[in-house]
Amino acid sequence: MNVNDLLQAIYKSGQGLADAWLFKTALASIVTVLNGAHASALLWFVLLVFVDLLTRWLAISYAQLTESRRRNGLLSCLLNIPAAIQAGRINSDAMKHRFAGKMILYIALTVMAIGVDNMLRLAGETPLLLRVVWMYLAATEALSILENIRDAGIEQAGGLLNFLRSRFSALFAKLKSM
């Protein structure tokens, strides 16, 4: 993929983001007005999923460079992403559907947790589920990002990944016993 093709792909992606911009803006405004904290959390989840997607592309690019016995440093992996797309290793349709699916799932889980927490409040109990759901989803994304970075050839990510897995396991075991 040459620079011109890359720019055209970026332009097409921008057009896709701009499609139905009025609807997307109205929906974002409604969500923000209804509950600012929840909308902020959603924006952070969007960012986490986007970083997860980018690091996945880096890992795929790393694998391609390694197989072809070419230099596979982080910058090389980043610069090789267009070639990985051209080779069909990175499929934008599959990535787009995975991103949309995650966002729909995260929104559904958040709405469910808000509903349960509201019922707990009405029953005089301490609301807990929303925090647990958000912690779990954020931890899952963080671990996925670290796995992708490790798979992109950055060895230091492996140690941090193991550390966080053990910490998250202990935290969720503690929550389970409540």
List keywords for this structure.
178 residues, flat, mainly alpha
Distance between the termini: 54 Å
Task: Assign the structural class, choosing from mainly alpha, mainly beta, alpha/beta, alpha+beta, or little secondary structure.
Answer: mainly alpha
User: How many whole angstroms does the radius of gyration measure?
Assistant: 20 Å
Regions with little confidence, pLDDT below 50 for 5+ residues: none
Strand content: under 5%
Number of strands: 0
For the sheet with most strands, the description reads: none
On the 0 to 100 scale, the average pLDDT is 84
Shape: flat
What is the helical fraction, as a range of percent? over 70%
Helix run count: 7
Order of helices and strands: HHHHHHH
What do these coordinates show?
The chain has 178 residues and is mainly α. Helices cover 84% and strands 0% of the residues. It has helices at 3-18, 21-34, 36-67, 74-86, 92-122, 129-151, 156-176.
Secondary structure elements and pairings:
Blueprint: H1 3-18, H2 21-34, H3 36-67, H4 74-86, H5 92-122, H6 129-151, H7 156-176
Short synopsis of the structure:
This protein has 178 residues and is mainly α.
